[in-house]
Write a structure and sequence with these properties.
The chain is of the alpha+beta class. Among the domains are: 134 residues, Immunoglobulin-like (Sandwich); 97 residues, no CATH class. Helices cover 23% and strands 26% of the residues. The strands form six sheets. The chain has a five-stranded mixed β-sheet with strand order 4-10-9-6-7, with no helix packed on it. A hairpin with a 2-residue loop joins strand 9 and strand 10. Helix 4 crosses helix 5 and helix 5 crosses helix 7. The radius of gyration is 25 Å and the shape is elongated. The chain starts with 10 loop residues before the first strand and ends with a helix.
């Protein structure tokens, strides 16, 4: 605990900055935060919400002091990205990383409307002020509200070369950017974030919290995959449906089509059988460990290893993540 300095200033100790819960599965977090100084607003532990547009909330910080200006201001925001999946009822899992941002400025005003370098980010926002010989500190929380599906689809339609990308978003997140139970972004175990579940390139702080920025970085990757799909298919005629499947496959890491010179047609690549209970897991049936078995039999053999992700695969559980299965799942077959 920080000890008070000898010069005169107000110290306010707050034991609980938020409400706790007796329910072990509750996502309500316990926060113990020491405040310093006398504040007009906001109250410690207050929650503010990035809206569905998205727009950063209006948060005014105001100190009560007789000290003459200028005042030195500092803000810091931080958020621990913990695994959630798309679940609503369970606690979040392990922490993958911590996102942080900060800034400083000098002002003659005793109040400041929070502006985090014009970025839309969330987490625990702490503001410190030095006024004369006194120090002030206050902490609040910035959380997020989910966008409306129709607004996401409309936004995607304004971006070039995005035919089918709404289906990718539906597949990845069902148009869910935040977990409603705690109003923090969706985080997958493979470090995928938000609507598009972006992993590579790894999204930055704003691309994790601002759903429009999340969509834009996802669209950039989708456009890259579509351009590669066009190169792969350009040697022979192809349809828009075939271009979409090739793009969907590449989005999830697999080439979908191979040209069959005998039939003069595009064939589905390889001998992959998909697990219909998943979106992108399947088996290479040319592998002797899988040959001769049905999808039901292989599912029963391997299903308990799926939750371990790639670490669950071994010589006895020979399954794979397949962009072919991903594309088929989006297409409904």
């Amino acid at each position: 605990m920080t000890q008070p300095k000898k010069h005169k200033h107000h110290i306010r100790h707050v034991k609980h900055a938020s409400t706790t819960s007796a329910n072990d599965k509750s996502l309500v977090k316990v926060v113990i935060q020491n405040d310093a100084g006398e504040w007009v607003r906001p109250a410690t532990g207050d929650k503010f919400y990035i809206d569905a547009i998205p727009k950063f909330p209006s948060i005014f910080f105001e100190i009560k002091t007789d000290a003459s200006p200028p005042y030195q201001w500092k803000w810091t925001i931080a958020w621990d990205a913990q695994v959630s999946g798309l679940r609503e009822s369970a606690k979040r899992g392990k922490k993958l990383k911590t996102f942080t941002a900060n800034g400083t400025f000098t002002s003659n005003d005793k109040s400041w409307q929070a502006n985090l370098d014009n970025k839309i980010v969330g987490g625990k926002l702490s503001v410190e002020v030095t006024a004369g010989g006194s120090e002030f500190r206050r902490t609040v929380f910035v959380l997020g509200k989910n966008p409306i599906k129709e607004d996401v689809v409309a936004f995607v339609s304004t971006l070039p070369d995005t035919i089918g990308f709404d289906k990718v978003i539906d597949q990845e997140s069902h148009f869910k950017h935040f977990i409603n139970a705690d109003n923090e972004p969706v985080v997958a175990g493979d470090s995928g974030y938000g609507l598009t579940q972006m992993t590579n390139p790894a999204p930055n702080y704003e691309q994790v919290w601002n759903w429009k920025e999340n969509v834009k970085v996802g669209v950039t990757l989708f456009q890259d995959k579509q351009a590669k799909a066009k190169v792969l298919l350009k040697a022979h005629p192809y349809t828009q449906e075939q271009l979409s499947r090739e793009t969907f496959g590449l989005w999830n890491g697999s080439k979908y089509y191979e040209w069959n010179p005998q039939t003069q047609a595009w064939d589905r690549s390889g001998d992959i059988m998909c697990d219909p209970s998943t979106s992108n897991i399947g088996w290479d049936m040319s592998n002797s460990a899988n040959a001769g078995q049905t999808s039901d039999q292989l599912h029963e053999r391997d299903k308990e290893t799926y939750r371990k992700m790639k670490a669950g695969r071994d010589k006895d559980h020979v399954w794979l993540y397949s962009g072919i299965c991903y594309a088929d799942h989006i297409a409904g077959n």
